[in-house]
Amino acid sequence: MSRKIHIFDTTLRDGEQVPGAKLNKRQKIEIAEQLAKLGVDIIEAGFPCSSPEDLQAVKAISEVVRGPVIAGLARAVKEDIDIAWEAVRRAERPRIHAFLGSSDIHLQKKLRRDRETALEMAVQAVRYAKQYCEDVEYSTEDASRTDFDYLCRVIDAAIKAGATVINVPDTVGYAIPTEFGELIRRLKERIPGLDHVVLSVHCHNDLGLAVANSLAAIANGANQVECTVNGVGERAGNASLEEIVMILKTRNLAFQAHTEVNIKEIYRTSRMVSRVMNVPVQPNKAIVGSNAFAHSSGIHQDGILKDRATYEIIKPEDLGIREHKLVLTARSGRAALRHRLTALGYDLPAADFERVYERFLNVADRKKEISSKDLSSIVEIELTKVPETFVFRDFQIMSGSSMTPLAAVTLVKDGKELIDAATGNGPVDAVFNGIERIVGQQGILRDYDLKAVTMGKDALGEAMVRVEIAGSVYSGIGTSPDVIEASARAYLNAFNRFFANSH
Ligand code: KIV
Ligand code: ZN
Q1: Of 124, 135, 225, 458, whose CB count within 10 A is highest?
Q2: pTM (2 decimals)?
Q3: 76 has a pLDDT exceeding 50
């Protein structure tokens, strides 16, 4: 018989720890509502003691989102647990999720506690949380690098103190599937109490094994997996929700396990998370990447035309990806644009749609045809827009193989044009320096990614940057058929995010 696997989504907590992806309350509610539509079992809405804003966001989610359990994370100390309870207590089904390191390296180097003290802290934390809330999850952080006998003692004690869910994290993504599956099997064998609680795993992707490790755990008896949409999360990310769900669906017989996720909402959720968090999905990402269902070789195309099953194991439409035949040009009206946006998973409120439409006409004037990729990046730019303290107006560049590039940049602030010029190591660097001179703030470029989102000479370029400004990292995105302009818009977008944050 197929077992149900509980999907614990931590996009809004572990996922939000991605540098530059910090969400505000409105954005967190928007994602949480979509996660409820997706049918996840648990939404970890945040780490309420980490900031007053996060507390307010988790509170708001608990009040408005119905369906899934709403969990709030807490370290195994009273103050955190008090705040986590304050955040989730109005949820239809609240959960407090307490955690503490259990490996020697965490105990000695991070917590400076001996094993017995830490074990006692775990017990006290679960008992304390239990006074507030029936549903208490306990996580043994860095479990995969913890001494096995000690791990068993902590888990056993946490269950006896009242934990309803025990989570075994591979916090640093060190485990490999055979080992991790074996760990779960041995824990179940050694601790009879595990048969009466939910046994969860939480895998990170440092070695690219988060999904494989989660599946090995499922095969050995775990019945909850903690994961994030698009696999976003600390460092290399967390196990990807859509991959786990679709593996269990596609290979149900191999695992004899299933989830109750509404897979038709997968694509829409993926696009929303990417847009709102400003974290692009790599094109070859399994399940939701833009190339995941693109067949390019002649032999494959021939096979697909004869029978899709020759080269396709998942039907894209099952994930909510709708195919389209419509060609969008500057003459396409609102109805055609709306139709294509819906097919791409974007359900935009009227005001957002109008902004996208305006930008669409603008780009369509310069390009013959607007493809789905063009459209996605137009939407991403328009809807991840922050208040524009500075508006990009224009740039001019003088460059050549035997001269230092010089850029003149024009921005607008409060209706006033501001112009400045700067040199740089290359034309893009010169424009960035010009922007910095005008906004009066320096940035350190941490990440710069430029891609043609379409093919051909008139391809639309999309630039993504991460810029460190005053000690924090801000993301920026910009598109234009001109790659220097795309880069400049992205750079300025990051600065505008910084200014919006500092007000
Ligand atoms: O990676 C980890 O160990 C965590 C815990 C807080 C569950 O995120
Ligand atoms: Zn984690």
Answers
A1: 225
A2: 0.72
A3: yes
